[in-house]
Records
---
Amino acid sequence: MGHRNRFTSFAALFFIGTGLPLALAGQVLAHEGEHAPAPAPVEIEVTVDKNGYTPSVVEVAKPGKVKLLFKRTSEVGCGERVVFPALGIEKDLPLGIVVAIQVEAKVGERIAFTCGMGMYKGALVVR
Ligand SMILES: [Cu+2]
């Protein structure tokens, strides 16, 4: 009870001191947000093992932000590095660790990705 009261007083002081300008700024931002909603990226898991990428062709229904969640599940093979040549993205894929790579998928676009030596091939496509 006492703890809660103290928090309430603190919150009141905070609001008077700095909260009000912040609240006003927040409303402006919220208003702008209505015009440009930023939908959460579509998340798709891609497993990397001795056979390459599964799925090897990642299809999304709509253009927009896509977060590819790469997870290497096998020491066998050469999937320890993933490369998106056209985007200049290169990342290590430690065994068993999910590595997220976010890209922007445009209509009709095919974004290729490969292993470090270009043997495993995959792509993100917009249907
Ligand atoms: Cu390779």
Note: Residues 78, 115-117, 119-120 surround copper (II) ion (CB under 6 Å).
---
Amino acid sequence: MDSQAPKGLVVLNHAIVGCGVISNIHGTCLGMVRGSRLAAVMDIVPEKAKALGEKYNVPYFTDRDQMLREVPIDVVHVCTPSGNHHEIAMWAAANRKHCFCEKPMDVTLEAMDLITAAFKKSGTYYGGCFMNRFNPPAQLFKKAVESGRFGRVTTASAQCIWWRTQEYYESGDWRGTWELDGGGCLMNQAVHYVDLIQWLVGSPVKSIRAYTGLLAHERIAVEDTAVAILKFANGALGVIHGTTAAYPGPHGTVEVCGDKGNASYDGKIIRWKFADEQAEDKTILETGGVPPAAKPADGATTGSDPAALGAYHVMFTRAFQEFSDAIQSGTPNALGTAEHRKAVEIILGIYESARRGGEEVRLPLKKSAIPVPMSLPAGYAEKVKGAIHPTLPEAMVTFRKKRASAKKGARGKSAKAKSSGKAAKATAKKSPKSARKAKRGRK
Ligand SMILES: NC(=O)c1ccc[n+]([C@@H]2O[C@H](COP(=O)([O-])OP(=O)(O)OC[C@H]3O[C@@H](n4cnc5c(N)ncnc54)[C@H](O)[C@@H]3O)[C@@H](O)[C@H]2O)c1
């Protein structure tokens, strides 16, 4: 929780900002949350806003301020591209709304710190979307760690072995970019697993060594494969293996080992062994720790198709319920800004180590290893630019240069085409100065 919530709310009105792939699960799951309802949706693309609004029978907007003027909103769901989260979250805070923000919190330390400051100031709630923490097997793991069943936790590992097609990366301008996706398989997909491993171990990550690669995709600036070794403050060691280059996907496991037990799960619990055997252990192993409602729907998996989120309804609904209940009761929520920030900082540490050829990187980090989005408040990007840019990975610098020159080329061509028009020629005859001015105006 970032603050006290206003008391006495009966039903919270939620608005979704960003009507793309993930907004559908927000819309559907909000319908299953006690004390909350979807009241409006908004997207800068009119057709997207309309489609989602009509699907859930709520008003839809292309102007977020107009939405707030016309519909009483309590909670804003941020479902826009990752590097844009700060913009929407800070706008929600400025309007004294609660905010439920998709993962990752944002893609740089600088943007995340601005979000944190905004909610500290607004006194409204911020909730981060790491719904995997609400997965029943994950909850059983956390309980076992906290009750000491693993003894001293010695190692933990997370594997997010997924497949994303080239078409997936080309399905949105923001995908596979540093500025808006914040990275590749780690920042977008494995971020859930990075969060799970740090949450389960329950101790800050102190240092990281890592390698990343772009091995099975093209025309993206980011990694599709990454391996990392973590050292936790409590002495435990961790391993992260994330990829979107493992056809056909999906496979995601989390394993925790200690001197009194070890357990792992891959959707459901597949290993659950402790020195202090307990009566419920047998049932946990038989059911995989998954209550019937949380079993994946036939063929539904996010490992190979982000739209097929059927199996995730239970987790999302529980995450929303927890957030809604906390606001209604004025009690702390599980995933405030500090919690949501942790996985992103670890991933930025992984990128920094990979950039330095696997050198050890210590946390906390002082600055982001990726570009600060230009949408940060005026002057902010300029202020940190000098400090940030020298640390950019080589691939990122090359990509930015190539893209900038491609854009320049395209602008040059269109300006040339325009200047060959009759109107421009006529003006040029009259006065070369006014022709130049006219050309500039059209750009
Ligand atoms: N929790 C999960 O498991 C999960 C799964 C998928 C995506 N996500 C996250 O959700 C976010 C969105 O992902 P997606 O796959 O739905 O992307 P998407 O591209 O399908 O949708 C994003 C939408 O945001 C809109 N948009 C962009 N800028 C906007 C602005 N300033 N104001 C309003 N709308 C704007 C776009 O028009 C688009 O419709 C990302 O941060 C992603 O990491 C989370």
Note: Residues 1-6, 299-310, 383-397, 418-443 have pLDDT under 50 and may be disordered.
